[in-house]
Design a protein that fits this description.
The chain is of the alpha+beta class. It has a domain at 37-128 and 191-234. The protein contains 21 helices and twelve strands. It has helices spanning 30-39, 41-44, 55-72, 74-77, 79-97, 99-109, 117-123, 135-146, 190-208, 220-231, 237-253, 287-292, 297-315, 348-363, 366-376, 385-392, 406-422, 429-448, 454-477, 489-495, 507-533; strands at residues 154-157, 163-164, 168-175, 180-186, 259-260, 264-269, 273-277, 282-283, 317-319, 327-329, 335-337, 343-345. The strands form three sheets. Strands 1, 2, 3, 4, 6 and 7 form a six-stranded antiparallel β-sheet that branches.
Amino acid sequence: MASADTAFGVFTENGPWVVDLDDLAWKVDLAGARADLHASLPALIRRRRLPPGKRVGTTVRHVGGALGLWYLTERRRGGTERMAGISRRLRIAAERLGPTYIKLGQIVASGEGIFPPELVAEFKRCRDQVPPEPWPVIEAVIRQELGRPPSEVFASIDHDPLAAASIAQVHRAHLADGTEVVIKVQRPSVLQRVRQDLAVMAWLAPFLVGRIPIAALANPPALVELFAETIVEELDFRLEAENMLDIARTFAELGQRDFVVPRPHPTLVTRRMLVMERLRGFNFSDVDGMRAAGIDTEAVVRSGMIGFLEGAMMHGIFHGDLHAGNLFILPTGKIALLDFGITARLSEPKRLALLSLVVGASNGDIASQVAALRDLGALPAHINVDVVMDRLGLDRPPVDPTTLTPEELVAELQRSIKTLLSLGARMPKELMLYVKNLVFLDGAIASLAPDLDLFGEIEAISLMFAEKHGERIVQQLGLQRQEDWKPNLSSMKASFGLDDTTERLTHREIQARRKQIRQKFDGRRASGRRRTRQ
């Protein structure tokens, strides 16, 4: 028989232990701990008149040195070399500054579509290249968290980590009874260093505004604020364990049994140590292996899209850091999710705003999408929706970007960014995590199901939501009738620059269109460099 806890969570059928939600000592007053962490944020990132401590000197030396060398070299060359140069130098500075800055780089690495591609590509090198702590250091942390020698709890622990990230590293182990587990152990002193570095970042960020070519809507002060909101919860593994249980319960309540969450141990969870069930499966990039094992990769993508959207829209909670290292595919074809340190929890008003954003996107209601972005915090609360639509030209028919000349394409992009900045646009945490996950799912389609009919999938998913949640959505959004909410494929096709006669669109075709647009940008940059040299 299946383990009793599968009744309320998407766990493996027969786990190494049973999670009893009423008997988890480490869950006591976690709501208070979470609230205290967030209450500490304003003090951590407040604007200071004077530099906050000695750490400033080290930071300024590495970041200032990177910017100075870039200013004297690649900046003068322009084009792709300009952005590639600053990206490489900032990545090297982050690695030299240690865990906090590496973590910031990892978040940037997951921000395709938010940050410049050169910056994303460079910071992806931070994801898997963090040197591990020596075993004696990790053993000391485990001993401190257990309050006794590790040998009294574990029969064995592999001294070589499975993975080493900026905040923690993960080791294979066996409990005293032989149960195979993994242990996530926080790097020592990381809490103190993160607090120091956040103070330095907050002091330094205003000086970088307008001086480095990062994404305009993620200006340095806003990025620091967003980063602080993201990282503080990662420093308490009890909160991560609670995230695991809440995500597992959400998927179960939604009937999303195509996902599996590893069980956190009932007693071996502390602020700096998390023992969990060991799962095995196919690496997300092993497409050939999955298909050879008879796994339907299109079904995997479909489950991923529905599960992510349904959890976010209907429950306001979702895994906030989807990437290939944080999930794998079980031999059954189910998706195993890992690393819940970054988990988005939307307040009810923001959940309703996100719900309105997705529903508006599905039926082509641009005004409701703009209002939803405002309510999510991407635009000032007082802003007029009609003004935004007029200034951005959203009330006009969309233009196919592949029909524009390189000069027109660049001019339109610059105009849009300048207008958004003048309107006070910014990227709030929840929206950034949501967009990051959409970008990851986009890449998943490219790898696992490049010939999937996207229009057909969008229509099927929209109809599924209408049938399963239509009455609730209509009531919560104040719509007139459930029948009025239908996917509008005509508006979706128009957003791609296609007319109503186009019946199919595969991801392979979208990639071809993106390549065409990138080539125009690259041609424009090359032309600009030639004019500069002349």
